[in-house]
Specification:
The C terminus is likely disordered. This protein has 554 residues and is α+β, with helices and mostly antiparallel strands. Helices cover 22% and strands 35% of the residues. Strands 29, 30, 31, 32, 33 and 34 form a six-stranded antiparallel β-sheet that branches. Strands 14-20-19-16-17 form a five-stranded mixed β-sheet, with no helix packed on it. It is elongated. It starts with a strand and ends in a 7-residue tail after the last helix.
């Protein structure tokens, strides 16, 4: 035996070895052992087992070997009530019996019938864990296997395997369907995915691993599960948000806005359908954003200057944003620009190219007109054919505080710009050998778009006048034979034709007959007039679509 320690806290550790070989100098024999029964206050059965051990007699003076076994025998006991405890939902009363607690409904134990034909009906008792007793009262206290009662399905649930309510197009979504109560083996299940597809199964047991489905389109889909048997039915609904990956966001906004006048801003997504999206709009230095579910929003700038608008688009776990700078002024002029057709061959229709060309066009306008660079803004618009729009801003040093002086100054500069554009003196070199001309694209008789209400109203009135005149001409030529004056002319023409036509003879039917040629020529003339009358009316929509490319309105 080895003992180690120290005499005091200040002393070092000491090691003491004791040798008992002089006292215990021999091995123990079987006669020096005696049996010992393990018991609990006289009860030899502990955890359902009887265990008999052996130990040395108190008078033995010998040494046990290393391979000495202390356990002699062990055997199971007959089960008694002491080997059982109260089952879940039951509590032991004063008389020692296990009865249902006030909050527990014993009939709910049959809920396992949703997936099988039988269930274990509790007696209120369960054997203590690790207890090894056998027979005795075991059959009385052990839960009994019973046939599931036939009942209508109740408590039908449908969930996704990962517990989320979102999915991505092209990926598998696994739905889990289960019952709280009901005969699952006799209950058929129908699952409608909400996208026009549905599946049916004869029982709940056949879909324990889940039901897989792939959505091809984005949207919010109503997934409906219906369980039905001969005694009734139950249903469950899940709303699944299916989205796709958001590639990029483009903020469509006017280049220049009018002070105290509402403008529209639109966020364009690629792809345009990504599912449930939240739009977060930041305006200027505002500390609180505007949150919408729509891709468009209206806003009014109350002060002049340069303002920044940022839109953030949140789709599922992604957030993308785009930013635009808007110049706000109380008065300005704007005009659409067109280019010679050779520019379209080099237009890749990307934002970087449009920005570069905008700078080139602006420099060309400044050089051709002498207008200050700070008063001119130019933006190239998306799409083909290539188009642009310039904005003419007032000189604050010359017109500050006087609106009429600002308007007159803008009109003067507008005439200079239009004169340069109409004289075809605004040109730039795109690359070696490629010369591009810039000229004004006219929508109507109004030469320039103004930011004031008076100019906008006159331009709209003139445009409506042109439309009404064109419509009137079209109606006259379309229904000309129903108009009295023209109808008289048509009747007189028919009478003259009848007088000139005589009975047909072999001589008259020859191609050289002058009367026949006269009638034919008149008919051809009449048809030609009809054709010219209808065809001379130009289609204003076609003309606008050819001359004016797609652009963003201010």
């Amino acid at each position: 035996m080895t003992i180690f320690g120290h005499v005091s806290h200040r002393s070092e550790w000491q090691l003491v070895k004791i040798d008992f070989r002089s006292i215990f100098n021999r091995r123990c024999t079987e006669e020096e052992y005696q049996t010992w029964h393990l018991h609990n206050q006289g009860d030899p059965c502990i955890m359902g087992m009887k265990r008999i051990y052996r130990k040395l007699k108190p008078t033995a003076r010998c040494v046990m070997g290393r391979d000495t076994s202390f356990t002699m025998t062990s055997e199971p006991c007959l089960c008694t009530e002491a080997d059982f405890e109260c089952d879940y939902g039951y509590e032991r009363r004063s008389d020692g019996k296990c009865l249902p607690a006030f909050w527990f409904n014993p009939s709910s134990m049959s809920s396992s019938c949703s997936t099988g034909n039988s269930f274990l009906n509790s007696t209120g008792y369960r054997k203590v864990v690790s207890n090894n007793c056998t027979a005795g009262v075991k059959e009385i206290y052990t839960a009994r296997k019973q046939q599931c009662p036939r009942r209508a399905p109740r408590g039908l649930h449908v969930v996704t395997s990962d517990g989320t309510l979102t999915a991505t197009t092209g990926n598998n979504v696994t739905f889990l369907v289960f019952l709280e109560e009901g005969d699952g083996s006799r209950t058929s299940i129908t699952l409608d995915f909400g996208d026009g597809n549905a599946v049916s199964y004869s029982n709940v047991s056949s879909i324990e691993d889940g039901i897989k489905h792939v959505y091809k389109n984005v949207g919010i889909f109503k997934v409906t599960a219906v369980g039905e048997n001969s005694l009734g039915s139950d249903s469950a609904v899940l709303y699944l948000h299916v989205t796709c990956h958001l590639d990029r966001v483009h903020l469509s906004a006017p280049f220049v806005a009018v002070k105290n006048k509402e403008i529209n801003l639109t966020a364009v997504l690629w792809p345009n359908q990504v599912g449930t999206v939240t739009y977060i709009w930041w305006f200027g230095n505002n500390t609180e954003p505007v949150i919408t579910l729509e891709a468009s929003v209206s806003f009014t700038f109350m002060k002049e200057g340069i303002n920044t608008v940022t839109v953030q688009v949140s789709a599922r776990n992604e957030i993308l944003q785009d930013k635009k700078t808007i110049a706000v002024h109380e008065h300005f002029r704007s005009q659409l620009l067109a280019f010679s057709s050779n520019l379209d061959e080099y237009n890749p229709d990307v934002a970087e190219w449009r920005q570069d060309v905008s700078k080139v066009v602006k420099n060309s306008l400044v050089q051709a007109t002498g207008i200050a660079e700070e008063q001119l803004l130019v933006t190239v618009l998306p799409g083909l054919p290539t188009a642009a729009e310039f904005f003419l801003l007032p000189d604050k040093e010359l017109t500050e505080g006087r609106a009429e002086r600002s308007t007159a100054h803008l009109d003067q500069l507008s005439e200079i710009l239009l004169s340069a554009l109409n004289q075809n003196v605004v040109q730039f070199t795109l690359r070696a050998g490629v010369q591009v001309s810039v000229y004004a694209a006219h929508l109507s008789a109004a030469p320039l778009v103004d930011s004031t209400e008076g100019h906008s109203g006159s331009a709209m009135l003139m445009l409506l006048s042109v439309v009404f005149v064109g419509l009137a001409i079209f109606i006259i030529y379309k229904f000309k034979r129903k108009i009295p004056g023209i109808n008289v002319y048509a009747q007189m023409q028919n009478e003259k034709e009848q007088e000139m036509i005589s009975p047909v003879s072999p001589i008259d039917s020859t191609p050289n007959n002058p009367q026949r040629e006269l009638v034919t020529s008149l008919e051809l003339l009449d048809k030609e007039l009809d054709t010219r009358a209808i065809g001379c009316i130009p289609s204003h929509s076609d003309r606008i679509s050819q001359d004016i490319p797609i652009y963003v309105n201010v």
